[in-house]
Design a protein that fits this description.
The chain is built from 19 helices and 11 strands. The chain has 525 residues and is of the alpha/beta class. Strands 3-4-6-5-7-8-9-10-11 form a 9-stranded mixed β-sheet, with helices on both faces. The chain has a two-stranded antiparallel sheet with strand order 1-2. The longest helix has 24 residues, at 228-251. Mean pLDDT is 85; it is low at 4-31, 286-296 and 330-334.
């Protein structure tokens, strides 16, 4: 899921598998003569993993099934042995590309997946290779979907595809997946979703329960928090994991030389972040301190609100919208490579050695940031991805914004209160969508009609989808929850034997045999 993105970012999505209990799905060759798989679009997938692609047409607006249509690219890696079923996957976002989901994970997933399952990924609507959502303003530049007058934004989007913007929702993305299922001639599918992909899977299961066999949901969106509260909770979810990261670096002080304690590592980190121009983001990073003790200064309009209060004026509101867009996207270019790489490292522990090495190199030579930039780019999202993220989260946001929390949030920052809670309240203000109002209500999540309980994987200290999302999703879908120690965002396919074995057992039998699992081991440094 993207990091606000679910700001996925996000991302950082991992794989799972499906199986049919006792019966075999028909092969594509016999079941779907109208779908022809061949070469994938240029730059869509990495070569060498056997990924093939096809194009499937679906209705743009399911309320008008005979109206305009859009094209979705679908990728497939065919099973190398006797098929047990077809496994669909979504990596998160919203706005993360899916076509190379399986190809990227060929070497880290259990071998039985390649033997037994056709692995399918559907590129979500609005992204490149899926009738991209192009919203170009009069100046020829993409408009920002997270700011400004909705009518202006909609006019820019409608210039390319009239009516398309309002159809970019999780419900329609789930319906797209079912259209692909039908085009491939499959009665039922199994599914893996990571991050935002868990919510997409839950919506699919609620709409089409009789078409689901097995479902693995890994690192879960809380269905009660869609969307503003999900992102607000995300602001504080990373605190424990960031503390864990600094403590781990301190434990390896002889190798990285960044401090003997977590606080010393943190202080070095703050110094470097400020030097790279991201001081305010460092200010809003734990441990909490008074404003006078922290480096840098608050940007406008935070300083203005702290001084004069929130006026609600157009100019001040516009500044705050710009600031919040930067906040929920992780700061974009304003934050510098250290903060971008830190964001990635909090998602998954496998990055910790590389991050610590990169931070150590930059501490010794501030110009040596190439390794930080490489880590930062691991979960980068393109223009269409950011547009899809904004469209989905603003089109279906069910949590009203609260402008009343803006003043108290700034006061908390200025007075030395819990800065991460204040940051969460800035998100709760709802200003990230600007004047954008929802066009639909989220699909109620339900387990009615599901043949097999979903398997729910959730890390205890997940920095991107807070732990409460796992139990909430398990309750909504009557799923079997497995709590994984540590804080990795995405648990399957991380060299975690306990988790991988539990997933494969579930896919074969439909049974979940554990309730807890240890965290994944770190790779050899």
């Amino acid at each position: 899921m993207m990091k606000v993105r679910l700001f996925s970012r996000a991302a950082v999505a991992l794989a799972a598998a499906c199986a049919l209990g006792g019966s075999m799905l028909p092969s594509f060759a016999g079941a779907a003569p109208g779908v022809s798989f061949g070469d994938c679009p240029a730059d869509a997938v990495a070569p060498g993993h056997g990924v093939q692609c096809a194009v499937v047409e679906v209705p743009m607006n399911y309320a008008e099934p005979d109206g305009a249509r859009i094209e979705l690219t679908v990728s497939r890696i065919a099973a190398s042995g006797q098929r047990r079923g077809a496994l669909f996957a979504n990596p998160g976002g919203p706005g993360a590309e899916g076509l190379d989901f399986w190809g990227q994970r060929t070497d880290v997933l259990p071998a039985a997946l390649a033997t037994d399952y056709d692995r399918i990924a559907v590129q979500p609507r609005g992204l490149r290779f899926a009738t991209p959502l192009d919203c170009i303003g009069p100046d020829g530049a993409p408009v920002s979907l997270g700011n400004g007058n909705r009518d202006v934004v909609k006019k820019a989007c409608d210039a390319s595809h009239p009516g398309y913007l309002d159809t970019i929702t999780t419900e329609n993305t789930a319906r797209d997946m079912d259209e692909v299922r039908a085009a491939l001639g499959l009665d039922r599918i199994s599914y893996l979703g990571t991050s935002y992909g868990t919510y997409l899977g839950a919506v699919y299961a609620s709409l089409f329960p009789d078409r689901v066999d097995r479902m693995v949901l890994d690192s879960n969106v809380n269905p009660d928090w869609v969307w503003t509260e999900e992102f607000a909770q995300q602001q504080v979810a990373g605190k424990q994991r960031l503390d864990d990261l600094f403590a781990w670096i301190a434990d390896h002080r002889a190798e990285y030389r960044l401090g003997d304690t977590a606080l010393q590592v943190y202080q070095n980190w703050v110094r470097m972040a400020v030097d790279q121009g991201g001081g305010w983001y460092a200010n809003l990073t734990p441990p909490p301190a008074s404003l006078a003790d922290l480096p840098g200064s608050l940007p406008e309009p935070l300083a203005e609100i702290a001084r004069d209060g929130y006026s609600g004026g157009i100019e001040q509101t516009g500044k705050l919208q710009n600031l919040l867009r930067a906040l929920v996207s992780g700061g974009a270019s304003a934050q510098g490579p250290l903060l971008g790489a830190t964001q990635v490292a909090t998602y998954t522990r496998t990055y910790w050695p590389a991050f610590a090495r990169a931070m150590s190199e930059a501490a010794a030579d501030p110009a040596n940031v190439q390794r930080l930039r490489t880590i930062e780019g691991a979960t980068s999202t393109g223009t269409t991805g950011r547009s899809v993220f904004a469209a989905i989260t603003c089109n279906e946001n069910a949590i009203p914004g609260r402008l009343d929390v803006i003043g108290s949030a700034i006061a908390t920052i200025a007075s030395g209160g819990n800065a991460m809670d204040a940051r969460a309240d800035l998100v709760r203000s709802g200003m990230a969508c600007g004047a954008w109002k929802p066009v639909t209500k989220p699909v109620p999540i339900s387990n009615a009609g599901l043949r097999t309980r979903p398997l729910i994987l959730q890390s205890r200290n997940d920095a991107l989808t807070k732990y409460e999302g796992g139990p909430a999703m398990a309750k909504a879908l009557n799923g079997a929850l497995v709590t994984v120690a540590g804080g990795d965002h995405g648990n399957f396919g991380r060299n975690n034997r306990a988790v991988d074995d539990a997933v494969m057992t579930y896919l074969r039998t439909g049974e979940v045999t554990i309730t807890e699992a240890p965290e994944a081991s770190l790779p050899t440094r």
